[in-house]
Amino acid sequence: MLERTVARARAQGTDAGVLTFEPHPREFFAPAMAPARLTRLRDKLELMAAAGIDRVHVARFDARLASLPAERFVEDVVARGLGADWLLVGRDFRFGARRLGDFELLARLAPRHGVELEAMPDVCLGDERVSSSAVRSALAAGDLERAQRLLGRPFSMSGRVAHGEKLGREMGFPTANILLRRRPPVAGIFVVQGMVEEDEGRWLPAVASVGRRPTVNPSAAPLLEVHLLDFAGDLYRRHLQVRFLRKLRDEQKYDDVPQLRAAIAQDVERARKHFAMKTDA
Length: 281
What we know:
The protein contains 10 helices and 12 strands. By secondary structure, the protein is an alpha+beta fold. The protein has helices at about 1-10, 25-30, 40-50, 65, 70-80, 105-110, 130-140, 145-150, 165-170, 255-280; strands at about 15-20, 55-60, 85-90, 115-120, 125, 130, 155-160, 175-180, 190-195, 205-210, 225-230, 240-250. The strands form 4 sheets. The protein has a 6-stranded antiparallel sheet, with helices on one face. It has a two-stranded parallel ribbon with strand order 1-2. A two-stranded parallel ribbon has the order 3-4. It folds into 3 domains: about 1-120, HUPs (Rossmann fold, 3-Layer(aba) Sandwich); about 120-150, no CATH class; about 155-280, Riboflavin kinase-like (Elongation Factor Tu (Ef-tu), domain 3), CATH 2.40.30.30. Helix 7 packs antiparallel against helix 8 (about 145-150).
């Protein structure tokens, strides 16, 4: 979709733009039942910029926008707000109050405002339709290879490193802690790579945990903890990007700290073997 948008914009000599909503509409209406976020807003903006998108319009999804009739959405947001002359959407796109607007209505309304409408065809890999639901299903099952095929890139998460309780450091495995404000689509222990914001392009081998730390001082909210192998720098307040390569196991609760330390040591060893095999290959 982004490639098609950029190509059309370049052909017309205009900007390629994207409209996205924050928060996700389902997070607004039913936060507890909303799907897990695949991409944080910052990551989404960076990915779109890398794809050649010139402008991203982030519409705050609130009660006012949720109550906007479909006809007003096209007039106020698409035509007047964005100044769009060409629009690309999927045929399952719904908009307006109570989601009453659909592709057929959009096809009738768009020409009235000088907007050319195009439908994005389904993208399939084999017999599977590429969709956010399919990606979430793969990630929930720990099938990172399938998720990567669907995404076209390794699944990643990022955030600013916060102060933790130094539990990992006390056990000999210091971690960079990233608080997750929304439910992540993955859980467990993973082989990952990390890249520090100021060290662009240098991916460091690491092992990570995504969960609530059930053995020692359980966390009320999900937490991403990353142990960079053979790294000695200070990461506090630095932005860390983490891409997931392989799931090692589910998160477990151990009887005591020595058992937890032994499990982490085993995870680290398995991660080292993973990277050693990749280097040998």
